[in-house]
Amino acid sequence: MYLATTDAVAKASEQEQSGARRGRVAGPVLALGAVSLVTDISSEMVTAVLPLYFVLQLGLSPLQFGFLDGLYNGVTALVRLAGGYAADRGGRHKLVAGGGYALSALSRLGLLLAGGATAGIGAALAADRIGKGVRTAPRDALISLSSPPDTLGRAFGVHRAMDTTGALLGPLAAFALLWATADAYDAVFVVSFCFGLLGVLMLVAFVPGHLSPALPRSPHPAPERQQTERQRTQPSAPRPRALHLLRVPAFRRVLVAAALLGAATIGDAFLYLLLQRRLDFAVSWFPLLPLGAAAVYLLLAVPAGRLADRVGRRVPFLAGHVALLGGYVLLLAPTDGWPLLIGVLLLLGVFYAATDGVLMALVAPVVAQERRASGMAVLQTGQALARLVAAAGFGAAWTLWGVETALTCAVLALTAAVAGAAVLLPRSDTSSGGST
Amino acid sequence: MKPQSPSDSHSPSPSLRSRVVAVAAAAAVLAGVAVTYTLQAAERAESADATSEFGLDRGKLYFRSTTETAGRIARVPVSEGGGGGARTTGGPSCERFYAASGTGLCLQRRPGIPPKSYAVVLDDRLREKRRIALTGIPNRARVSASGRMLSWTMFATGDSYAGSSFSTRTSILDTRTGYLIKNMEEIPLTLDGRRYHSPDVNYWGVTFAKDDNRFYATVSTKGKTYLVRGDMAKWSATALRSNVECPSLSPDNTRIAFKKRVREGTRDPWRLYVLDLRTMREHPVAERHSVDDQAAWLDDDTLAYALPGGGGRKQDIWSTRADGSGNPTLRIRGGSSPAAVR
């Protein structure tokens, strides 16, 4: 039944969106990609200089900085769920996402005005985190709702590539500004605010506010569905209930698989630290390691998305985690020098390219359109929490048993998780192995 | 607004063209704001590389002046109390500074891609003798009383991926032999009477004794901090007691000033204490504010340290009696890194 529905829908959309069939992605996706690019320049500029600003300029201790930084991690998870839920109510994706972007942009002015006051800085950081948490799920939902199901991988690939471009440019822009102005952090905040505001304006101008009814439906014949479609813009529309999501077997499977894999992911910071320990290169090159992985991610995001569209999203998603596993094994193996460095960064980049956007493309077809943002929020939050637990666990294992044992444990855990996820993940994107 | 179909997803008024024009105009205005602000900020900046206009003389209190843009080193006579005026500016530009007996240590940061940090060894005229490239954020700097042994601590961070986790790298330089220990983390450590191994040990805030061999430092592991006594010749370290950070040995080597955690969380976590090494008894000093600094001894009775200044923006240097009596006095407005050259 699912297969039949989606096939028909896919054919219908094929005729409508013939332009999008050949290599091009929908206009709204490009617009959202451009917004993310500009916004990421803005946010990564600030992220790159904040530790320096706090410790050198304000004389805050690392402890205080760590406290401010860590304070909102738990909050972000809740805010993300709230953002997804709010977006689903009446289809206000653009409004909720735009609010998130605007809040983050304004937080730069908050940093500027706070001066050295810890409370003000705390508030500005909180605003930034809340903005980031709120916007992510509605934005990903918008991407999925603007693209036919069979091009989702490519759409997310294009978006993530543009997003990563911004993330790469941001720190470069920030350090160039500090260099040009002899450490005028206020200039970094002002320029970051300008980029942030531009992102909001681009969203307002170029991203459509309401979703097209002509777009293909998700294969979920939920009982309230037709009614919802008709009454979408009316206040009496039934609320999307997040808990209903968990009753959808296909969604549950994806969620559990993503959490399982997330719980076996040790965190990039540890990988970079291990690389530095093994290679003992000049530490001034240390900040460039994440840029290497991000560059690989940037180059492979679109090809990985296209591959996902062709062979099904399950395969690249699992393969990406196998690449990460390869990175862990490489760190345990007696490899050394350049092969180790390039190998690990390459595999880490492949991991992100093959999993980050692909997971969203994987989950989109199994969540009804009305609950798309909530579904993505639940999935992203579950994955993030699992990764948090994994990083803490790996840190503890490293301290207790030493690095070799900890890494061996990570390899075993990830192998088991990949095997588990291979069983759990729906075989094909459209057949969910059961109906609601 | 009505639902639209994807083919005319830009349909309602205003037209796509007018929206492009509007966003382009907004982008031009924002670019103008960004460029203007940056140019003005660049104008404010002054060259940080000017040579110093004075040397290291006895009886002077050197400090980093935070009222000047580039954080230049300035000095006042040690005897001078209060926040007042006879300050001489025009030293080198440093993030952190310390000096003793004809040797200065200046921790610098130079913006760039990636940003670079340096430990610069200065002679008695504050001229550069040696420059060591480092990574991270300058944090603590100390020179032994004789001027021979140097030590500094960097926060290994500044990387966006590192998030909230800070770690430290502490180096020791013997200026007589030129021998440099880039990271003292591998020093054999004895804790609770046993050889201690853990990947998370971090050292910071080294202070040297008069013999240029014995030293004290902070070590942190598993969330606790300890005072360690180290021996350069034997290359070993022993933890003496817990909850001690940033020790600073008195000129007569009988007492250690340090900061002690008196409260969990980030609200006023530390107080300044003095530990008598003969009795191993400690007492708080009169300063009631939380002090996050490695205190400097101006003489055997007086401690100086930086506190957040008025308005929170700049730091001020305060001093107080080491025996816990009296009241703290504001020594220098807009300064940090105090170092008395005796």
Automatic annotation (TrEMBL), chain A:
Transmembrane segments annotated in the record for this chain: 109-127, 164-182, 188-207, 254-275, 281-303, 315-334, 340-363, 384-401, 407-425
Domain of life: Bacteria
A GO term for molecular function: transmembrane transporter activity
One Gene Ontology CC term in the entry: plasma membrane
The name this protein goes by in its record: MFS transporter
Organism annotation: Streptomyces venezuelae
Region Disordered, annotated ranges: 216-238
Entry keywords, A to Z: Membrane, Transmembrane, Transmembrane helix
Domain Major facilitator superfamily (MFS) profile: start-end pairs: 28-431
Subcellular compartments: Cell membrane
Cited InterPro entries: MFS (IPR011701), MFS_dom (IPR020846), MFS_trans_sf (IPR036259), Sugar_transporter_CS (IPR005829)
Membrane topology classification: Multi-pass membrane protein
Positions with biased composition (Basic and acidic residues): 222-232
From TrEMBL, chain B:
Region: Disordered, residue numbers: 315-342
InterPro entries associated with the record: 6-blade_b-propeller_TolB-like
TM regions (residue ranges): 20-39
The entry's keywords: Membrane, Transmembrane, Transmembrane helix
Record has Membrane as a keyword: yes
The name this protein goes by in its record: TolB
